[in-house]
Design brief:
This protein is mostly helical. The protein contains seven helices and two strands, in the order H-E-E-H-H-H-H-H-H. A hairpin with a 2-residue loop joins strand 1 and strand 2.
Length: 182
Amino acid sequence: MCGLSKSEPTQAQENYIRVEGPSQYIMGEPIGIYLMPIYAIGCWYGLYAHGATGKHLLSCALVGWIWAIINIARSKRIDLGVVTFGLVILSTLCERYNGYTRFVRWTTTISSIFVAVNFSLVLIFWKPIQKDLAKSRSAIWLKVFVSYCACLMVFWLISAYKSFFRGETSTSSSYESVQPPP
């Protein structure tokens, strides 16, 4: 032999090579590498299409909340998204039943800021997170993940800003259709 020693592949290399099934890996990468950009694009489209009314917040928060629950089930680690997205869900549901009141305005704005802070924690603590995730994820996955967190941090900050400056209504909600006056 040439004197080269065979070393065991790293966990990231094994994840890239191995395909465990369609529910976890696609073309060697965890399915999240494809879902993260799709979710981010969907959120930004919702903001573009419904930013003035806030209708996008419930669906964006609901997907994020379910994703956080899946993360907890798979990794056995806490995901603060369960709490932060849950607060957005509660505030948007309050809007459906009570209209866009001052209380709903403040809770929607603050809960959206909490979600943005949750995403910013990844950016703040990126070096140790990257070191931990590099054991089981590819370099491209890490780049997609950090970009996803930065993109959604900005999205939730803009959503908070737009929520705060939306007009208050005490009798109707942004989810009701607009009726012309009689």
